[in-house]
Amino acid sequence: MTTTLQQFKDYLYQVGYSESTVNMLPACVKEFMEHQQVTDIVHISQEQVRAFYDWLQTRPLRKRPGALSEMMISHYMYALRTFFSWAEHTGQIDYNPLSGMKFTRARQNRREPLKPEETQQLFAAAATLKETALLHIFYSCGLRRTEGEALNTGDIHYKLQLLYVREGKGARRRVVPLTERVSRELEAYYVKERSGTTARHVKDSEAFILNKAGTRMKGSQYNRLLKALTSKAAITKQITLHHLRHSIATHLLQSGMSMEYVRDFLGHRFLETTQVYAKPKSEQLKLL
User: Could you confirm whether 59 is annotated as catalytic?
Assistant: First the structure.
């Protein structure tokens, strides 16, 4: 069983899942195997899956009082679904025990998107080319945190006004179109600020946005920069990088963009995922 879980982990790594997911999904599957005393995945039944799901409803937390959240239970079931799909595809099982099974979906916390005037406030408060580039990457381009972290200098084509996401969620690639303004201001950061850094300070020649040490900006550093920018813009609510992505999705839909276009823009696999950002009231917006 250890060998099977290692093969599954290798598969997740090869198709481009994040490091945390590569570690988390096999751990969830291992807990299922141990709880149900599985020694051979060929004979796993739906009754075992259901029994494990029911047990998760009352499973205590290990490091503090309380039980698993609905979202965490959803992660466990996603891990099993991914594992059994992989096992079926690779011929290790003839029948996927999760086929036809349905589970209650976790209620996600709704992030309220920024108002159009709030995004204008953020851009107006940006005092450096790096701050403007940050807003364009996560708002104008709608990148995920991990995608922004992985963005390289060679991923942006200024003349064609295109940004390439080489390794999106689930190893899906996509091309993000840029407006003339976004392309111009990203290039301005690259030419005037990033490339203006003394050569001996640049330790990562591929990374698009560098921190003060000359290495690739991490998500936590992006969030700190965004927090400072939010304060300068006199916006009191907490804003994360995903708020920016959420906001551009909502604004595009409100401006009349089709759901299918926004799905492709965000790199979603399913249209249902994109529908989370839909709002009942539509209004025309001038987007950056």
Answer: no
